């Protein structure tokens, strides 16, 4: 997946082809779909939790915060070569877990050297957000952090416990609301199929209800694909986990969307893993989207071929 350049920099061809990634990226670089045009500044390698049974993204990678010199060199590189990119994403499975002083240092350097950057984003787990006080979250916002991407995955506590996600739904709701109260945008990711066939409808309904309570500006619904290097894949092979089929996933999507009420937000299910690409503006677009899902369930809308689904 990686090819080296003469100056030792590397490019992760699997994820992006933009010049912004000609940086000293190590291991796996993952960013949300809507950060595809952002400067990708890696501040940590791996994920500090790394225990979710469905996630193979950072398996085998030991979590560590990248050293100051490397991050500074990458910011200097961006200052020379990324002058037309207005957004920057701090890469790392849970970049918000970095100590407050280090995050402020990085945000200060970004503001000083990349003054054209208008928004910085990062992944932040409920655990990482919980380690910051309200005033620290506001300090991050004032320093340029504009959006936090939080993985809810499921609103069903039984499902969260089974997949070893850190924290329960109440904790995730609480920390998500703190992000918004601090003045940052909140984006929440959920995962269709995570409850298996057994908890499919419970998972879908509970997730919609939790999303309603979090009321984020942005929801990203992905569809579970089992990765071979994960414990959940092993459970599936043993027959201990049954993955819903395309119809089952669509039914979940319908229930989840029906149970989700946002004041004003986007519900996106247009990730490469989804069978039916949807981009729904809530609350106005809900009814039309539900009707589209119903047409798909009745076989009147084409679904993405299994071969073209991807993570
Ligand atoms: S899903 Fe997120 S928190 Fe869980 S192991 Fe993967 S990167 Fe870490």
TrEMBL record:
Query: Where do the Radical SAM core domain residues begin and end?
Result: 33-264
An example Gene Ontology molecular-function term: iron-sulfur cluster binding
The protein's matches in Pfam families, at most eight in alphabetical order, are given as: Radical_SAM
Write down the required cofactor(s).
Answer: [4Fe-4S] cluster
Q: Which PROSITE patterns match?
A: RADICAL_SAM
Q: List the keywords (alphabetical).
A: Iron, Iron-sulfur, Metal-binding, S-adenosyl-L-methionine
* Stated name of the protein: Radical SAM protein
Q: Which organism is it from?
A: Desulfovibrio ferrophilus
């Amino acid at each position: 997946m990686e090819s080296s350049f003469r100056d030792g920099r590397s490019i992760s061809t699997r994820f992006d082809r933009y010049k912004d990634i000609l940086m000293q990226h190590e291991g796996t670089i993952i960013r949300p779909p809507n950060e595809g045009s952002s400067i990708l500044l890696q501040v940590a390698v791996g994920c500090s939790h790394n225990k979710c049974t469905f996630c193979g993204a950072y398996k085998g990678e030991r979590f560590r915060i990248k050293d100051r010199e490397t991050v500074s060199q990458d910011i200097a590189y961006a200052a020379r070569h990324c002058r037309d990119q207005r957004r920057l994403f701090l890469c790392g499975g849970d970049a918000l877990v970095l100590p407050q002083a280090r995050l402020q240092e990085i945000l200060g350097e970004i503001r000083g050297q990349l003054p054209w950057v208008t928004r910085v984003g990062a992944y932040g787990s409920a655990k990482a957000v919980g380690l910051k006080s309200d005033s620290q979250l506001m300090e991050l916002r004032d320093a340029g952090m504009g959006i936090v991407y939080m993985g809810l995955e499921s609103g069903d506590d039984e499902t969260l416990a089974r997949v070893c996600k850190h924290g329960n739904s109440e904790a995730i709701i609480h920390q998500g609301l703190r992000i918004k109260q601090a003045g940052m945008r909140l984006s929440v990711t959920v995962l269709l199929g995570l409850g298996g066939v057994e908890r499919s409808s419970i998972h879908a309904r509970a997730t919609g209800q939790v999303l309603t309570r979090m009321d984020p500006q942005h929801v990203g619904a992905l569809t579970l694909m089992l990765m071979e290097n994960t414990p959940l894949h092993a459970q599936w092979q043993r027959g201990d986990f049954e993955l819903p089929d395309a119809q089952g996933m669509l039914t979940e999507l319908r229930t989840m969307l029906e149970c989700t009420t946002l004041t004003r937000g986007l519900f996106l299910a247009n990730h490469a893993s989804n069978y039916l690409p949807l981009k729904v503006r809530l609350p106005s677009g809900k009814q039309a989207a539900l009707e589209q899902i119903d047409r798909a369930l009745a076989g009147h809308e084409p679904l993405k071929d299994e071969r073209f689904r991807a993570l």
